[in-house]
Design a protein that fits this description.
By secondary structure, the chain is of the alpha+beta class. It folds into two domains: 33-73; 92-242, no CATH class. It has eight helices and nine strands. It has helices spanning 2-19, 28-31, 35-66, 69-72, 78-82, 171-182, 218-225, 237-242; strands at residues 92-93, 102-104, 111-119, 124-128, 140-150, 155-161, 188-193, 198-203, 230-231. The strands form two sheets. Strands 1, 2, 3, 4, 5, 6 and 9 form a seven-stranded mixed beta sheet that branches. β7 and β8 (198-203) form a beta hairpin. The longest helix is centred in the first third of the chain and has 32 residues, at 35-66. It is elongated and about 110 Å long. It starts with a helix and ends with a helix.
């Protein structure tokens, strides 16, 4: 009887030991990461590596973009983009070229009867102040300045000689005046023919486009054309040169 009770107590103790789980032992399942967490961690690492790589590649990418041919190419509509417009900087005082098609402005306010002093050696024309005409009459010539324009849109002032006070004219004056009149409505060429010792006028039949006149007025054309070639007093360097003073 005593032995059976001892065996029973022994069995109870053994069973009690099986049911006791120490609370201080950490759970193995709690410390083992799941597959999803492993994938997320690796993805974050790859993303960080990609950012570092991109940061290191910035200088080389920037260099390539700076010298990209297409990005450096100038657009055909550059003038429209920057709002640019052409500025008339020079206006020649000259005769039409022998192979040049030209037009003459039909408005009489775009021409001027005046006097010029022509330096043939320098091929320069000087506008003379009205106050000096009487004193310089032997040096100057009366002309009419026509506003003309070439097919390329280049404006110029065409000086055509006029008869002096005696009223005598010649075929050269008549030919140029006729050419100017025809050029008001048609594209004209004026060229020298040695056989007849005169200019010939040729009017175009198939050139029907309208001339492009400058945006500025006739007064502004005069200012531009004669800005450094306007004789206003007798001490002008050109007059001193003609008098042999320099």
């Amino acid at each position: 009887m005593v032995r059976k009770n001892q065996q029973k107590r022994s069995t109870t103790k053994v069973g009690a030991k099986k049911n006791v789980v120490p609370t201080h032992i950490p759970s193995v399942a709690a410390e083992t990461p799941s597959d999803e967490r492993v994938v997320e961690t690796r993805a974050d690492e790859l993303a960080d590596e990609a950012k570092v790589s991109a940061a290191n590649d910035v200088p080389s990418k920037k260099l390539i973009d700076e010298y990209d041919v297409e990005s450096l190419r100038l657009d055909q509509n550059f003038d429209e983009i920057v709002g640019a417009r052409p500025v008339l900087a020079t206006v020649a005082v000259r005769k039409p070229g022998p192979q040049e098609w030209f037009r003459v402005h039909p408005d009489s306010s775009w021409r001027l009867q005046t006097t010029l002093l022509q330096l043939k050696e320098d091929r320069e024309n000087y506008l003379v102040s009205p106050d000096l005409r009487a004193q310089l009459w032997d040096e100057i010539i009366p002309i009419v300045l026509y506003t003309a324009v070439s097919r390329q849109g280049e404006p110029f002032l065409w000086p055509v000689r006029l008869p002096k006070t005696d009223g005598k004219t010649d075929r050269f004056i008549e030919t140029d005046l006729t050419a100017a009149k025809v050029a008001e409505t048609q594209w004209v060429r004026r060229y020298w023919v040695p056989e007849i010792k005169s200019h010939k006028i040729l009017a175009a039949k198939n050139l029907v486009d309208d001339p492009v006149w400058p945006e500025v007025g006739f007064k502004e054309l005069l200012k531009i054309a004669f800005k450094e070639r306007f004789i206003k007093d007798l001490n002008h360097p050109v007059l001193k040169k003609l008098r042999g003073e320099q």
